[in-house]
Write a structure and sequence with these properties.
Order of helices and strands: HHEHEEHEHHEE
Largest sheet: 6 strands, mixed
Number of helices: 6
Number of strands: 6
Structural class: alpha/beta
Number of domains: 1
Distance between the termini: 45 Å
Radius of gyration: 16 Å
CATH class: Alpha Beta
Strand content: 15-25%
């Protein structure tokens, strides 16, 4: 409990600061992807999990995404909750060649990027919306 108190877990300011930081990341992501979409770019998202869905809604990305890809075969062939975008295997990014893939499953970003270097080598761009906003390109 001492660690929690020292961290400020019981202080509203801790959560207000966190919310402000998330709002900055959201704005950076939205600005980048909105511009990309206005320029006619195709945008896919990696990570059709509940955290990916939550991030999609909180960041207001629903109208910017064309589809999801996910390595989990149990999610492939289904649709994302609410916005009903199709979920494909990750191989779809090589067939369809979206301009940008937003990595919603950010905890697996390093593995996903490592496994999909060829996408980057072919001119694709990965966007990491959390824990920092980052564009990853070759």
């Amino acid at each position: 409990m001492k660690e929690e108190e020292d961290f400020g877990l019981y202080e509203i300011e801790t959560y207000e600061k966190f919310n402000s930081e998330i709002d900055v990341l959201k704005k950076q992501t939205l600005d980048y992807l909105t511009t990309a979409k206005k320029n006619g770019l195709k945008i896919a998202a990696f990570g059709a999990s509940i955290t990916g869905t939550t991030l999609t809604y909180h960041y207001e990305l629903c109208k910017l995404l064309d589809y999801f890809v996910d390595d989990n075969t149990a999610k492939q062939g289904l649709f994302s909750p609410g916005i009903h975008l199709p979920v494909y295997p990750t191989s779809k990014i090589y067939e369809d060649k979206p301009d940008i893939v937003v990595i919603l499953a950010w905890r697996f970003a390093d593995i996903f990027i490592e496994n999909n270097k060829k996408y980057l080598e072919n001119g694709g761009i990965f966007i990491l919306p959390v824990p920092i906003f980052k564009t990853i390109k070759n």
